[in-house]
From TrEMBL:
It comes from Triticum aestivum. One of its GO terms (cellular component) is chloroplast. InterPro entries: Isoprenoid_synthase_dom_sf, Terpene_synth_N, Terpene_synth_N_sf, Terpene_synthase-like, Terpenoid_cyclase/PrenylTrfase. Its cofactor is Mg(2+). This is Terpene synthase N-terminal domain-containing protein. The keyword Metal-binding applies.
Amino acid sequence: MSNPAIAGASSYVLPARRRQAGSRLPAASRSLFVSKSGSHQHRANPLRLASVHDAGHPSTEARRGEFFPPGHYPTPPFYLMYARTRITVPSCLGLVEADRPSKQNAEAQAPIPRQRIKAGDEPSKLSHMIETIRVALSSMGGGEISVSAYDTAFIALVKNLDGGDRPQFPSSIDWIIQNQLPDGSWGDSSFFLVQDRLMNTLACVVALTSWNLYVDKCEKGMHFIRENIWRLAEEEEDWTLIGFEICFPSLLCMARDMDLDIPQDDPAFEAIYSKRNQKLNKIPSDVLHTMPTTLLHSVEGMAHLDWKRLLPLQCSDGSFFSSPAATAHALKETGDLKCLNFLDEVIKRFEGGASCVHPVDLFERLWAVDRLTRLGISRHFTREIEECLDYTYRYWTENGLSHAGSCAASDIDDTAMGFRLLRLHGYHVNPCVFKKFEKDGEFFCFPRQSSQSVTAIYNTYRAAQVAFPGKKDDVLRRAERYCRTFLQERRASNKLSDKWVIPKDLPGEVGYALDFPWKASLPRIETRLYLEQYGGSDDVWIGKVLYRMPLVNNDLYLKAAKADFYNFQQMCRLEWHDLKRWYDRNNLQMHGLSESSALRAYFLAAANIFEPNRAAERLAWARTVILTDVVSAYFQRNGCAPDLRERLSTSNLTRDRHHSLSRVAIMDWTENSILHVLQELIMDLGKFDSATDTLRKAWKDWLMAWTAEERSGPCEWSTALLLVRTIEVCSGRHNSTDHQLNVWEYTQLEELTSSICRKLASRVLAKRGHRMENIEDIDRQVDLEMGELAHHALQSCNGIRKLTGQTFLHVVKSFNYVALCSYETIDCHIYKVLLEDVI
């Protein structure tokens, strides 16, 4: 477990490694859904935890065990003074259609003050962006992916199957001619990786030379190769192209057979040939010819193959491991009609070109859903996401998932991403699938792999945290331990480059996952940090060549997410302004509640329930927590005597407000003031008699949960239940038919919530040295019960509404978050999420 005093800091303090292996070249402008050029701007984050430690906060060890501590800080936090200025800034708030309150929920929604929106303002722009993205998601097919000059060149090498000295695919020759870069090379124009440029360029030169075409273009290509081949020795080892050590030596042999002027004794070649031999030795020839392996992806670089034995290993679409280059080589050697049909489809799909892998239907859908979710805009695409996950679920097997539905060779990366998203969305998937990727206590992506992928382990770590109770999920618990250790070691040694993708800030993504596990990760915090970690169209993937995934990495996603988050921040500042007025009007500071504690209460509510059309639930959460802190402080000052609790709860439960307030003769001024605020809150939140009765009962249960022995702090478990019941009342779900018919299921969720929050309170006390429990034992128990809670909330068979299950998860995850973090970390997140403008 990371140090709570610095938890979360790594996700936006650790410097990201440089992405370039050379220089980034200028590129022409592109349309919204075409990969875009440009470099990532690694802006220095102005937020530093050290500055917060000087703000007068109590240390982690000095903090109390309450959900929020009553009392004042010696000095107001820096963000609090900043907040007082931010709420005065004029803002324009608007809701896109998906955020508008439903008719069923309209009466429960508290009004959000906002200016009238003018035509052309940001909300209309956001709506247009959302609609553009929605159309793109709805048109998903085999996958949007950039064209590979290397694969196109291998297709161009295929001679006409009917005989004659002409190409089978002349349009591939045209594509090569039209896409040479100004420096004479072929490859990714926006990101310079020497392996990528050399592979693409040499393949294109070989293809054109084989047909005696465009000598001038070939010479320009050869000049580029001769001038840059020395760079191979200086290339970033983590960014080696897939199969480079197999395919590049084969290309060199083809070039020499054509008498092309290729250097013979470059020192970099020796290392490449050594890696080639090492990889071929890992997969014996008999294995290669009897089962699908990753080497099938690179068969164009291998000699002495038995094609009669290899052809049965084709994918169902006729390809070899979804590789157009490998399939073109197979067609050239065998004339197989299934290979021909696959390549015909590819050439038609990419207008003469070919991608380095096709199709990528599962990969594209899963990663697009993941990105949209982490960017915080998935709620705008619920139907499209459901279609993506339904599509993925159709291909789920006992062996897991591959990048494509037509490919039988599964891998842990696609399997983990699919498992996590499917389980979180209520699909039933068997965790035993991960046993296929486990050997000798370690987890791997592909059998006999030469190195481990950071992102594959990262995605497996994220998936393993959504473990349910039972022996089947034991493999997930083993995977979580292995992946966490692996990622911690890589982070400690600053080795977080990945072999499959070059993202903007992978260290930040990994750091957040390690510091804030799923049980303590709040949606708006993750989104705010991911807005700075996500590279948009600049993120580039590593295959046989560099490639782009426009529906996974897209600048429009980022622009829409920033606009959406900007609206969220404006909404929060206005809501906090109104909440602050309520706080001042009721003199809550006089009752021992600091303004900073009130802001924390609102922050936790907004970090979980952030949708504009759920303002009533969000504000009810905040006001309820604030008032529990006020009552807690009062009990701590005056002692939790039974007559005091009885007096407050009895007065509180009286339907007649005037009758209850007539009892002031036996109360002091403070007690009467608290009761007045409590009565007002219940009447405001309970729009109907049944709702008001439910709230009165919830508050009575909370008040009576106090005992004289619990003077050190409130009953966290009781506060959590009060929050859940209050949120459900304000949402209109408290008296639903589903709730009435599933009392047992609801009771299970309440019991688990109580148990988890009790243990979290014990964890805080044990960390302060006030109790003797072992913190690691408590964490294990919390993890198991969190799994059970998640199982009930996400995959209930008895009909508990999904939003009700999410309410339990939100509340309990917030308690986990508070137990994990220091006040300094929480304050940093408040500043980051609510006050620092998204740029």
